[in-house]
Amino acid sequence: MKNFRRTTIRLFLSLLITLFLSNCQDEEYEKIDQPKSLLQTVSKDDAIQFLEQQKNRSLTSKSDQVTSLTYDYDHITQEEITNSTELLTVIPLLTNNAQEYSRVLMVTIQNERQTVVYSMYPETTMNTSNFSGTIMIRTLEGDFINGYRVKNGENISQFFSTGSTNKSSGAIGLKEVVIQNNYHAPNYYISFITIFQMGSYYYNNVYTQLYHNRWNYGGSYNYGYSTSGYFDSFPCDQLKKAVDPLNINNMMPSIEWLKTKVSEAQNNKEFGVEVKMRMNPDQTYTNIYNPIESPNEFNVELTTGGTYIGGWHTHPSNADKMFSFGDVSFLLDAYINASDSRKATVFYGVVVNNNGSVNTYVLKVSDAATLQTKVDRVLNDPIYSELTEKEKYNAIHKKQAIIYNKNKGDLEKSFLEQFNDYGIELYKISQTPSETKWNKLGLNSNKTAVSSIPCN
Predict the structure, then answer these.
(1) Residues 290 and 337 in one domain
(2) What are residue 179's phi and psi, to 5 degrees?
(3) Domain end call among 226, 261, 292
(4) Within this chain, do residues 92 and 39 fall inside the same structural domain, yes or no?
(5) Shared domain check, 245 and 185
(6) Is residue 84 predicted with pLDDT exceeding 90?
(7) How far apart are CA 320 and CA 353, in angstroms?
(8) Neighbouring C-beta atoms of residue 395, cutoff 10 Å
(9) Helix or strand or coil: residue 260?
(10) In a domain, 352, yes or no
(11) pLDDT one-digit tens code per residue, 271-327
(12) Is residue 22 part of a domain?
């Protein structure tokens, strides 16, 4: 839901025209970026059922490759496919480590389920942006499908099966052929033709569409890997990019707008900026910032779900100058409702004026399961069972205000004490006339003071 403050008929008409034009643009974008697809998403439940069935079948077969694969079902994702509204189902292996990053990729193409094991072996450290190492694509049974040697994101050679097998090791013989690359541009996306070896469709209309159905190597969950663009795994990398003046799509104009609002003489209602992360036809991403003026003093309603990745808001003069429990709950909602490929980018920021000092903070999710458990435990406390949702949050916030007041103005320390085990991280902007930096805030080792770690 969204709140719009209609102050004049002229403003309303202007807004109506803007929305009409925006809708037309969105419709045009959908036609360009998302044509009717030959693909169908495999649901997470169907993917699990299929893999378990394959394991059971392999128990009676001569190959034990399928039964040796152990799947991390807790971290299945469904990730974007360019030029399609369908999603690629991605199941990581439990055996992943710093030397190997393997995932099962699953999608239905022309009513036939396609499944491969996609493995990345880095030369040094794992980084899906400008990756260097080898990529091997195999069947669940371990049969070779395709492979590449990659240097700084460029495919420099391709592997082909020779058809021979090493008698002692059982390894399949591979021949490596150098690829001529006149463009020398990193490959941030890989085509479904390459992944699923759809050569039988060569040069027909199916081939043409599948060539433009691509995947961006996906998220990295928790193996210490990072991905390209806004998909950087580490919050510090995301936040630095968000305020980088060289990034023309940075968030600083939105932050500065909110800073002017909390600095006004009458800071008696909330303002917000919801952030939508849109995929462009050229396979890049653009953040769309929608400023919102709320008629309410203590809340502003921002959109969550799908392509929305969170947003910013302010606190008025009469509110605590730090995140509330309701803000933490909103972060959880934004995370749960965001598309799987965008969850790592979800954030929630607040801009506050604390006695003339304007501070900017951001929350990021570090452990979604823990966050869900903690928020649910508070909301489901029996003492609130007879209250409406609004009354429940009001009661929780009154308790929180008392806790903040007891900390003698040290709101950062108080917040960290209250939410230290919630699976979230707190960041704060540090600004000079020439530079904007982020610091991660946490309690020191003996929990007596706030420590600040720069995002270098």
Answers:
(1) yes
(2) -100, 130
(3) 226
(4) yes
(5) no
(6) no
(7) 10
(8) 14
(9) helix
(10) yes
(11) 999 999 887 766 577 889 999 998 888 889 999 988 899 999 999 998 889 999 999
(12) no
Same domain? 268 vs 303: yes
Residue 10 covered by a domain: no
Q: Classify the C-alpha dihedral 320-326-328-334 as positive or negative.
A: negative
What tokens does 255 get?
Answer: 């932050």
Residue 419 has pLDDT above 90, yes or no: yes
User: What is the rounded end-to-end Cα distance, in angstroms, of the chain?
Assistant: 37
- Give residues with Cβ within 8 angstroms of 45, minimum separation 6: none
- The angle formed by the CA atoms of residues 433, 438 and 443, to the nearest 5 degrees, is 130
Pair 139, 249 in one domain: no
Q: Which region among 35-49, 136-150, 178-192, 333-347 has the lowest average model confidence (pLDDT)?
A: 178-192
The pLDDT assigned to 227 comes to 34
3-state secondary structure of 297: coil
Q: Is 101 domain-assigned?
A: yes
CB 147 within 8 A of CB 138: no
pLDDT digits 0-9 by tens, 171-194: 667 888 887 655 444 555 677 878
Burial 326-345 (b: 16+ CB within 10 A, else e): ebbbbbbbbbeebbbbbbbb
Cβ neighbourhood burial of 434 (10 Å; 0-12, 13-18, 19+): exposed
Same domain, 265 and 193: no
Residue span of the structural domain in which 384 resides: 234-454
Distances (CA, A) of 355 to 290, 314, 318, 321: 28, 15, 12, 9
Phi, psi of 429, deg, nearest 5: -80, 140
Can you give the pLDDT at residue 206? 65
Claim to verify: residue 200 and residue 243 sit in the same structural domain: no
Boundary-marking domain end, from 179, 206, 226: 226
Four-CA torsion 354, 359, 360, 366, nearest 10 degrees: -80
Whole-prediction pTM: 0.55
Question: What proportion of the chain, given as a percentage, has pLDDT over 90?
Answer: 36
Q: How many domains is the chain partitioned into structurally?
A: 2
d(CA 119, CA 208) in angstroms, rounded, equals: 26
Mean pLDDT score, 148-153? 84
Average pLDDT, the chain: 79
The verdict on 199 and 240 lying in the same domain is: no
